[in-house]
Specification:
By secondary structure, this protein is an alpha+beta fold. It is built from 6 helices and 25 strands. Strands 10, 11, 13, 15, 16, 18, 21, 22 and 25 form a 9-stranded antiparallel β-sheet that branches. A 5-stranded antiparallel β-sheet has the order 1-2-3-7-5, covered by helices on one side. It has a 3-stranded antiparallel β-sheet with strand order 6-4-8, with no helix packed on it. Helix 4 runs antiparallel to helix 5. Bound molecules: zinc ion (ZN). Zinc ion binds next to loops.
C-alpha cells in the first residue's frame, strides 16, 4: 500500500554518506518536497537523478513509483517498484505495493479499474474504453485494513461509452498503522437504468416475403425453460437479417460443432447487436464462417448479417433469436447470457405487429417493401 510506504519513506532518514550519496540524498529530499507540493513530474525527475547517483537508494525508486502512480503511469510505477524490491527484497510493503499495482485489472475487454493514489487516499475509477457500449458492474474490497470508504461497499457503477466514472474513494484511517486493500470487480454490458422502447416493431430475422415457423417459443420446453427466446425453422445456409438496426458488438463464427446436448452449449456461433435503447439481440447457431458483419459494424434493420446453421446446442438447423434488456446482474447466467430476455413484437403487413407463438408461421415484412 502506498500510504504507509510514503510514511516509511518520510520517516527513514537518508543513509550513511558514501560516494555520490550526498548528491543523491539532496535530490531525494527535493523529490519528497516536490511530491508533497504535488509536482509529480518534478518528483519523478529528481528521484531519477537520485538513483542515477546512487542506484541502490531504494527509497528513491519508491518515490519514482509514487510519482508515477500519481501521474497514472502504472507500468512505469511498476518498473520502479521492481527496482526498489530488487534492492530491498525482504520489504513487505514493497511487495504489497506491487500486488496493489497488479490489482488494477481489466475486468471486461473494454472496462478497466484504475486506482489513483493521492497521498493517503486511493481513488477508484472505472474506465470504459468502448466507444459504443455502456457497462455496469460492482466494485468490492475482499480486504480492507485501516481504510475508510467514502461510499458504502460493494459499490455499483455504470459507466457510459468512452467515459471514466469515479466509483469510490478510500482513505487511510490511521497514518501510522499498516494499511492495505484488495479490489475485486465484475462488469457486464448495458445500463441497468435503460428502458426498452415500448412497442418497438422488430422484423422477423430473415428475408422479406419468406415464411418461417416458430419451432420453440418463449419459455419453451427444450432449451428456453427460463427465457423469452424464439427458434425459427431456418434451413442451413439461409440468410439471417437484422431484426432491428444497431451496432454489432460480438461475432463468433469459428465453430463447426453442434448437437442435441447441453455439452454443445459453448459451440454455438452467434452475432450480438446492440440497439439504441440499450437492449441487444442475439442471433444464434449460425453456420461456420457464416457471419456477414464484423464487430463495430453499424447495421440497418433487414440487412443480411449472416447465414443460419446448427452449431451449438441444437437438435437441427434453426435460428435462435432473443432480445435482452440490461439488469443489475453482473454474473453470466448458466447459458452465458447477461440481462433479462424480453418479449418482442414483429412487423406485419399494414404496419400491424404480432406477438409470435410457438407452432405458428409468419411472413417477414421489411419496411419499404411490398409483398
Ligand atoms: Zn433457441
Amino acid at each position: 500500500m502506498l500510504g504507509p510506504l510514503l510514511m516509511l519513506a518520510l520517516l527513514v532518514p537518508a543513509r550513511a554518506v558514501e560516494a555520490g550519496v550526498v548528491e543523491a540524498t539532496a535530490y531525494y529530499d527535493s523529490a519528497i518536497a516536490a511530491f508533497n507540493g504535488r509536482d509529480y513530474a518534478a518528483a519523478d525527475a529528481l528521484a531519477t537523478k537520485a538513483v542515477g547517483e546512487a542506484p541502490f537508494l531504494w527509497e528513491a525508486w519508491q518515490m519514482i513509483a509514487y510519482a508515477r502512480v500519481a501521474m497514472d503511469d502504472l507500468p512505469g510505477a511498476r518498473k520502479a517498484l521492481i527496482a526498489a524490491s530488487n534492492i530491498n527484497p525482504n520489504n513487505p510493503h514493497l511487495q504489497q505495493s506491487l500486488e496493489n499495482l497488479g490489482s488494477a485489472t481489466v475486468i471486461a475487454p473494454a472496462v478497466e479499474v484504475r486506482v489513483r493514489r493521492v497521498l493517503t487516499r486511493a481513488i477508484i475509477d472505472v474506465v470504459n474504453h468502448s466507444p459504443d457500449i455502456t457497462f455496469h458492474g460492482v466494485i468490492s474490497f475482499p480486504t480492507m485494513v485501516n481504510f475508510t470508504p467514502d461510499v458504502s461497499v460493494p459499490t455499483p457503477f455504470t459507466v457510459l461509452p468512452s467515459c471514466t466514472a469515479t466509483v469510490n474513494t478510500i482513505r487511510q484511517a490511521d497514518l501510522y498503522k499498516h494499511a492495505m486493500y484488495e479490489i475485486a470487480s465484475r462488469a457486464a454490458m448495458g445500463d441497468p437504468r435503460a428502458l426498452p422502447t415500448p412497442g418497438f416493431a422488430y422484423l422477423f430475422p430473415w428475408r422479406h416475403g419468406k415464411i418461417h415457423r416458430v419451432v420453440q417459443g418463449y419459455f419453451g420446453a427444450t432449451t428456453h425453460l427460463n427465457k423469452r427466446a424464439l427458434d425459427f425453422d431456418l434451413p442451413e445456409g439461409s440468410s439471417v437479417c437484422a431484426a432491428r438496426a444497431g451496432i454489432v458488438i460480438e461475432v463468433k463464427d469459428d465453430s463447426s460443432r453442434g448437437g442435441p446436448a447441453r455439452t454443445f452449449l459453448g459451440d454455438a456461433n452467434g452475432i450480438t447487436i446492440l440497439h439504441d435503447d440499450g437492449t441487444w439481440a442475439i442471433y444464434g447457431h449460425l453456420q461456420r464462417h457464416g457471419a456477414r458483419v464484423k464487430v463495430c459494424d453499424q447495421v440497418a434493420g433487414g440487412q443480411v448479417i449472416g447465414l443460419s446453421g446448427h452449431t451449438g446446442w441444437a437438435t437441427g438447423p434453426h435460428l435462435h433469436f432473443a432480445v435482452y434488456q440490461p439488469t443489475d446482474q453482473v454474473e453470466a447466467g448458466e447459458d452465458g447470457d447477461f440481462g433479462e430476455s424480453i418479449a418482442t413484437e414483429f412487423l406485419q403487413p399494414g404496419g400491424r405487429t404480432v406477438a409470435p407463438r410457438e407452432g405458428w408461421s409468419y411472413c417477414a415484412v421489411h419496411p419499404g417493401k411490398r409483398l
